[in-house]
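Protein modeling request. Please complete all fields; requests missing the sequence field cannot be processed.
Requester role: graduate student
Desired output: 3D structure, token encoding
Chains: 1
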Amino acid sequence: MTTAPAPVPVPAQLAAHEVTASYRRQVVLDRVSLWIDRAETVGLRGPSGGGKSTLVRVLALLHRPDRGRVTVDGTPVTGTRYAVPVAVRTRIAVLFQSPRAAADPRLSLTDLIAEPLRATRHPDDEIRRRVAELADLVGLTPDLLGRRPHAVSDGQLQRACLARALTHRPDYLLCDEATAMLDASTQAHVAAVITDYQRTHRAGVLLVTHDPALMSRWADRVVELPTAAAGAGGAGRSAG
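Delivered output (240 residues):
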């Protein structure tokens, strides 16, 4: 009797495959490949303006590549933003460098954290419980939650943005210079919250930073992003 071959295991990873992407008509990524396994932290280094933030946006399904593809656990994702099913897009979250650029100035911190849950039509009582849980997790006291971004510090606002990023319990968290604008104590707190979350949920983390000490402490492996002129050869070497 012939036995069927064993199924090939599907990789639990977020991956960019031979991605080429442009920004304002300029190619900033040229056939770049990179993957992030669940429960690992990948550091991403490269020159300023070299395409790191564009790669983050491609992986976050916010920017459509000109060529190549993004896969989530082996499944290709063809759309971006709201064209991607909720069950897929909520598995990836981003924490950007500037909390003020990432936050709607009209929203209170409560509404900022609740925004992704309201967008996916969660019940109000569940939203209230989740916001309170996340605020406590990131160290925001109740007196801060009713304030708008202009009435809190950069560090407090970034904590709210981190809480928002974690609302759907993502499997992959992309941190694009997320601690660069914070003081040392807030940097340490944000890093500790992300590390604890990663351990609890086996989340994959992409860390973009110019801080060599943070990179060496946190990253399991480091990828050098090639310039667009380097082409596929540099990209292939960098991804491993």
